[in-house]
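In the previous chapter we treated chains in isolation. Here, by contrast, the input contains two separate entities that must be folded as one system, with a combined length of 909 residues.
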Amino acid sequence: MAPKRHNARDITPSAAATTQAGPTTAGTVPATAAVTKPYRVSVTTKDSWAQVVGNVWSHYLKTTPQRTKLIDVFMAFLIVVGALQFLYCVLAGNYPFNAFLSGFSATVGQFVLTASLRMQTTEANKSDFPSVSPERAFADYVVCSLILHFFCVNFIN
Amino acid sequence: MSATSSSSFDLLASGGRGKSSRTLLRVVILLFIAGAAIASRLFSVIRFESIIHEFDPWFNFRATKYLVSHGFYNFWDWFDDRTWHPLGRVTGGTLYPGLMVTSGVIYHALRALTIPVDIRNICVLLAPACSGLTAFATYLLTNEMTTNASAGLLAAAFMGIAPGYISRSVAGSYDNEAISIFLLVLTFYLWIKALKLGSMLWGALCALSYGYMVASWGGYAFITCLLPLHAFVLVCMGRYSTRLYVSYTSWYVLGTLASMQIPFVGFLPVKTSEHMPALGIFGFLQLLAFLDYVRSALPSGRQFQIFLWSIAGSVFLIGLLGLVVITSAGIIAPWGGRFYSLWDTAYAKIHIPIIASVSEHQPTAWPAFFFDLNMLIWLFPAGVYLCFQELADEHVFIVVYAVLGTYFAGVMVRLMLTLTPIVCVAAAMAVSQMLNNYLSLKSPKPEDHAVVEGADVTATKKKGGLKSTNKPVVGIYSLLSKGVVVTSMTIYLLLFVLHCTWVTSNAYSSPSVVLASRMPDGSQHIIDDYREAYQWLRQNTKDDAKIMSWWDYGYQIGGMADRPTLVDNNTWNNTHIATVGKAMSSREEVSYPIMRQHEVDYVLIVFGGLLGYSGDDINKFLWMVRIAEGIWPDEIRERDYFTPRGEYRVDAEASQTMKDSLMYKMSYYNYNALFPPGQAQDRVRGAKLPEVGPTLNTLEEAFTSENWIIRIYKVKDLDNFDRDHASAAAFDRGHKKKRGGKKRGPRVLRVE
């Protein structure tokens, strides 16, 4: 039961990674499905899409260690929080723009920092980061998060 | 001097010393370079005195004094009612506080160490001190580019004495650029470091340095555009890596948040087009990271991979399209005028005369490149070529920076400053490469290689990079060629030092507040009219007397005379400036109501006719006319100020509009009295003035400085007898006969 839930969540970060690019640059509707769906429809080979998703799914299940899954859960949580804030901004207006910006950038910032931590601690990327041990990565992560939240709190008014 | 010492360092270092002695040598050389950089910037203090230069520094100085005396929070909320009268200016929210805060911190730190230093001296010496740091940062940046240690030292030496940088950082030039160039180079160094290591911490440091840069100078937009461009080029070259993701995203997130802490920047990073590339690349990298992960999950699916890449492209295009839509819908502010003028050099001249009127916004003349960079400018392409040979990620950065920097430097004189660091780095790489090849005394053994290879000595240098890897080792064999090349390089380096020293001492060390001229016997004569006039204002006028002058002198009046001004160098309100321009360029009858409305007490103009000082207001006059014309096209027409033949003249043949304009009248009022009748001459424009000088009715001369550079006029109050000023002035001049003849009435009074 538990791993399944992780899987269900994993789809959200990966799909939402595209939305990260979507709403911020294009300003399209922030729903994750809206971005991915048109491509699915436009593709003639629907089977291959199912295959792709299935492959990624199984790959994820097979290769991801438990700790990394914990990181993924946190990232999924951040995406949900960020999407909620964005939704609120779209629906209810952005009146305290300071507050919205600092809240939203806190989630976005934390997301990318966590993603960076995830990359640096993944075994497969070891060769990319010869000088960054997992401990060093975590220390960097903590320092960067502190800076991030300092700025956010200062900006929130 | 230091340039050559660092090249000869190669000889010393290759002499087989230990590692520690090399480090010691390096430190000593860097210290010497910093010393040379600081020393060469002190010409202005030695030639003149410890004084703040030019225009903008006077505002920075005034703001710093305010910060030091009122504290940080008051400075942050500073509303200045002594500028832009009657509008005022929210100074605390419309300046880049980095410079002032830096010197404030230094001031308080020195006080805490019980070293009481005058704040003025800190301000004067801040720029030279930062130049030493810049040299060090350049050393670090260059060391990231090449394994050759001497390149870094050479780059530091070049950076220390290159006139292109000195022009903005001599002692007394207390401007934002003083610390920003150091921060610029430092940010680039940290970015390269972060990219190489893929470390979040270095990315965060880069962001902090970037934040400091944003706090200091509007030129931060250069970094904001350059780093995304570098990332984008890397992605296009197929060099996306997790390191790029980590360094870029951590820089962007933290750096953007840091930049938003500055009130003047505020929401700009999410609202203006200049910042959108960075945001776009940020989103694009998220997408790439996701695709990268999917690709690693699908080891065999090539078709999926291609398909996914096409998704990446289409999302990027959609993003770009959305950006265009949002921009045209007005949610994101379009590009500012200064940015348009970066792409179309004629744009500002047509649409925004106030930007075009500033001389440092003009396109660069080509001799300026040689003047400011000397031999570096022809070594620069060689260095870029060397980067192409290796072309790691950091070399791509050099190439991108070189292209962008060269373009911008060609468009705007002022942006020579941002080009200088990269020129120094690239040139240093070229020189060190050359010296490395030619300085080693041992020549390769010919019998080891093919004989043919050794024959063409001159061609050997050209064969570096990829070709050299699959050919046998080549080298320089003849001592003669080594000697010739090394000697000529040394001579060039020496000439470079000579040129830099000469340019610094002659061209860039004048405070422009104090002028120097030579007496016939060769001794120096100081012309101190500006300070004389400002001192007069300070001592002889009310504390809140409003001074009207052209905006160039606003900061100086605020700083030196401490009097409220109508407009100053901040130029945030074009209409207000145009109002002053209209007052200056209209007839007295039109100008007087404008001046009354703005409560002007004194009018200050700069007149160089007597001395031959060409930067005076008559020469700037056409810009006033143009700016005023932009707002009141039917009242002011530039054409009217020219003679029928299209000449801009000030003598008897000047157009009537010109002669009637307030600026003309103020400039030449009473000027005739200095000369024998009919001999009055304007030495700037080489014009002989009409025999009868202009008359002024609504103003009276209050002060004229020793060399007539500054003239101050007092605006007359309304006439006591309710006459208009023209008739009142005519009465005072003695033209009272006609009037007197008619108005004999008062006699009746006497009878009664």
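Strands of chain B lie at 515-518, 524-527, 546-548, 600-606, 681-682, 687-688, 699-704, 710-715. The CA atoms of residues 68 and 105 of chain B lie 9 Å apart. Compare these points with the single-chain example from earlier in the chapter.
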